[in-house]
Design a protein that fits this description.
heterodimer; A: alpha/beta; Glutaredoxin; five-stranded mixed β-sheet; two-stranded antiparallel sheet; 7 strands; 38% helix; elongated; B: mainly alpha; Helicase, Ruva Protein, domain 3; 5 helices; flat
């Protein structure tokens, strides 16, 4: 019995060393999910991000569920998700964009080059609305129901496999 | 394979392009509040809020544009009369406990606070029993002598 307790500290040490080694090999979850899911959008009214489309405000989220896409012209994954957003738009989904820290000419240039899936794009020059809805980066896509309640959050660019998920979440939000 | 390659190239490209975010920073990102008392309050709070894009730094330590925008939120809210605690609550309501470096007792963190107390109690109990035993042993020895 005494012999066994002698080994206990070493066993404990080995356990923690092993745990640390194991955790080092695990991929770290870097995603910070918004805790605003199920909450109504905060009040906001953003100026148009460029001349081509109106700005965005909370009152635009009425009627059928819509997508709220947080993006920026300086964000590369936003280029990657552009075709998927267009595909969603072609299927009748209304996408309202919020451009983060963007100049009007850059927004216009990006949309001319990569396509424009938006009906409105608001300009969030100081990430105010982004912070208010718990989004921690670009791009992020939120499903907002007809009452202006945040129903779903997709972090990162929308890949081809994410399109059916978003469509299902839009359907669920009806 | 191609997808991974593309992703790799895109990540490599992402840094210089991200640096092209040429917008001027938010008014209070790099400017202190005029009132030193309010600025001290804001600064203390900013040191205990986590930067969301550079996860091991506080927003006071980080030069990431988003950290600047968060500093602007903190300073302008302090200026508008909100208390540091209200601002911390506002952020926690959006990002969870994650955003705060100040430990809080919550449904997931209570063991962190309870276990040390429990250990101290156990140690105190063991010590008391042992010391008490030794003292009474000593008394016995004294009685025999």
């Amino acid at each position: 019995m005494r012999k066994l307790t002698l080994w206990l500290p070493l066993a404990l040490f080995a356990f923690f060393a092993g745990l640390a080694a194991y955790m080092l090999t695990q991929e770290k979850d870097q995603l910070i999910e918004s805790t605003m899911i199920g909450q109504p959008l905060p009040e906001f009214a953003l100026q148009p991000a460029f001349e081509g489309l109106p700005g965005a405000s909370k009152s635009d989220f009425t009627g059928k569920p819509k997508l709220l896409n947080i993006w920026a012209s300086w964000c590369l994954p936003c280029i990657a998700e552009a075709p998927q957003l267009e595909a969603l738009q072609r299927q009748g989904v209304e996408i309202i964009g919020i451009a983060i820290r963007n100049k009007p000419e850059d927004v216009a240039g990006f949309l001319a080059k990569y396509g424009n899936p938006y009906t409105r794009v608001g300009s969030d020059r100081i990430s105010e609305v982004q912070l208010a809805i718990g989004s921690s980066g670009v791009p992020e896509t939120f499903v907002i129901d007809g009452k202006g309640v945040i129903r779903y959050q997709h972090i990162g660019d929308v890949g081809a496999d994410d399109v059916p998920t978003l469509l299902a979440e839009l359907e669920k939000a009806k | 394979m191609m997808r991974w390659l593309l992703a790799l190239v895109l990540t490599a490209l992402a840094l210089p392009l991200a640096a092209q975010d040429t917008m001027p920073p938010a008014p209070y990102a790099y400017n202190q509040l005029a009132d030193p008392r309010l600025e001290a309050k804001a600064s203390a709070l900013m040191h205990t809020l986590r930067c969301l894009t550079c996860q091991s730094q506080s927003i006071a330590d980080s030069d990431a544009p988003m950290a600047g925008d968060m500093r602007h939120q903190v300073r302008s809210r302090i200026l508008a009369g909100e208390s540091p605690d209200q601002i911390r609550r506002w952020l926690i309501a959006r990002y969870g406990d994650y955003v705060s470096y100040e430990p809080e007792v919550s449904s997931t963190t209570w063991p962190l606070f309870a276990i040390p107390l429990l250990v101290i109690l156990i140690v105190a109990g063991v010590l008391l029993r042992r010391l008490g035993k030794r003292r009474s042993d000593g008394d016995d020895a004294g009685a025999k002598a």
